[in-house]
Structures are given as C-alpha cells and as structure tokens.
Amino acid sequence: MRKSKEGESLIKEMINLNAIKRKRIEKMYTVSEMAELLDLRSPDKYFRRESGEYNFQVNELPALSKALGMPIENFFCYRFAKIEK
Q1: Max CA distance (Å), the chain
Q2: Dist CA 21 CA 14 (whole Å)
Q3: What are the b/e assignments for 6-25, b being 16+ CB within 10 Å?
Q4: Which are the contacts of 83, defined by CB distance < 8 A and separation ≥ 6?
Q5: What one-character-per-residue DSSP string does 13-57 give?
Q6: Distance from C-alpha of 73 to C-alpha of 30, rounded to nearest angstrom
Q7: Given this model, what pLDDT does residue 37 score?
Q8: pTM of the prediction?
Q9: C-alpha atoms less than 13 angstroms from C-alpha of 28 in its C-beta half-sphere
Q10: How high is the pLDDT of residue 44?
Q11: How far apart are CA 28 and CA 55, in angstroms?
C-alpha cells in the first residue's frame, strides 16, 4: 500500500469527485472510455482516481476537462473555515 503524502487528504477534499462522476455518467462515458481518454493503462486506474483512492494528476486535468466539457476550475470544491476570534 502506498504511503500518504503530506497534504494529500486536503487535496482529496478539494477535488469534487461527485461532480466528475455525475458528469461522466451524464455524458454516458464508461470508466474504460475515460481511462482511454486520459491515456491510462487500465480502467481500474481511472476508477481509483474517480473513487478517491488515488489523486488525479495535474497533467490529466486538461484531458478530463475536454472529455467532460467542464472547466478545470469546476473540478474543485472551495471550503472556507470560519475563524473565531
């Protein structure tokens, strides 16, 4: 099993995996088709990214954006913590 890198969990919280999956289903792409579009070696590699087990790589985002017809900035969730004084 791969060791977690510092900040990795924060990145996973920032990526809106549900929006990516919803858009893929809406566009009627299979996991296999998405793997091919992102030039991944197997459908499992895409599935693990979409399910949050692995992170999408920065160099995969333009192809993901093009395939889903979704701007890259829409892949991210922006949460702001309320700072109490």
Answers
A1: 50
A2: 15
A3: eeeeeeeeebbbeebeebbe
A4: none
A5: HHB-HHHHHHHHHHTT--HHHHHHHTT-S-HHHHHHHHTTSSPPP
A6: 23
A7: 96
A8: 0.75
A9: 0
A10: 98
A11: 22
pLDDT of residue 18: 92
User: Tokens standing for 71?
Assistant: 């701007």
Residue 64: what residue type?
L
Distance of alpha carbon 5 from alpha carbon 31, whole angstroms: 26
- In 3D, which of 62, 59, 58, 30 has the Cα closest to residue 46? 30
**What is the residue whose two structure tokens read 């990516």?**
20
Q: Token pair for residue 31?
A: 């996991």
Mean pLDDT, rounded, of the chain: 84
**8 close to 55: Cβ distance less than 8 angstroms:** yes
